[in-house]
Amino acid sequence: MNSLAICYYNGKGTEKNLAKIFYWYQKAAKNGNKFQNNLALLYEKGEETEKDLEEAFYWYQKVVENNYEIAMYSLAIYYQYVKGTEKGLEKAFYWFKKQQRKDALMTKLVLHYYMKKVKAQKMIFYWSQKATENGNEVEQCNLVNIMN
């Protein structure tokens, strides 16, 4: 189902068909697999359907139940920026920590401390330095900004 949706999306072997893209992603998502993430993205971006952040949020929550790491990152971003309340930031932090990608985790730990405006300069410096040591270019810039 997901492969068929991709064919319709790219116009490979058939004509590009927006309605069928949404139909097949929706059908794949309802079968409870990691392709729920694709449906969440369609809702989030408003591609092939009306933009609906609540529906995107629902599907991100469903897909993380299957430990799909990319969706954990998306859900964390959703909590951080779309639901940017104090409670939202705590949940964003939880999903960033749950990921296995350490470079992303370190970057997000820095963001968490910064965004919560916690007076934790030592923690921000520590995590920026760790990420920088692992070659994270974004954190190299953040570390320079912290030191200035």
Explain this structure.
The chain is 74% helix and 0% strand. The termini are far apart. It is elongated, with a radius of gyration of 18 Å. The chain folds into 2 domains: 1-85, Alpha Horseshoe (Serine Threonine Protein Phosphatase 5, Tetratricopeptide repeat), CATH 1.25.40; 101-148, no CATH class. 35% of the residues are buried. The protein has 148 residues and is mostly helical. The model has no long low-confidence stretch (mean pLDDT 74). It has helices at 2-10, 18-30, 36-45, 53-64, 69-82, 86-98, 102-115, 121-133, 137-147.
CATH topology of the largest domain: Serine Threonine Protein Phosphatase 5, Tetratricopeptide repeat
The CATH architecture of the largest domain is Alpha Horseshoe
Following the backbone from N to C, one meets helices and strands in this order, namely HHHHHHHHH
Helix-strand category:
mainly alpha
Number of domains: 2
CATH top level class name of the largest domain: Mainly Alpha
Assembly form of the protein:
single chain
In terms of DSSP E residues, the strand content is under 5%
Number of helical elements:
9
Report mean pLDDT, rounded to a whole number: 74
Q: Give the low-pLDDT segments.
A: none
The CATH superfamily of the largest domain appears as Tetratricopeptide repeat domain
Which percent bin holds the helix content? over 70%
What Rg do the Cα atoms give? 18 Å
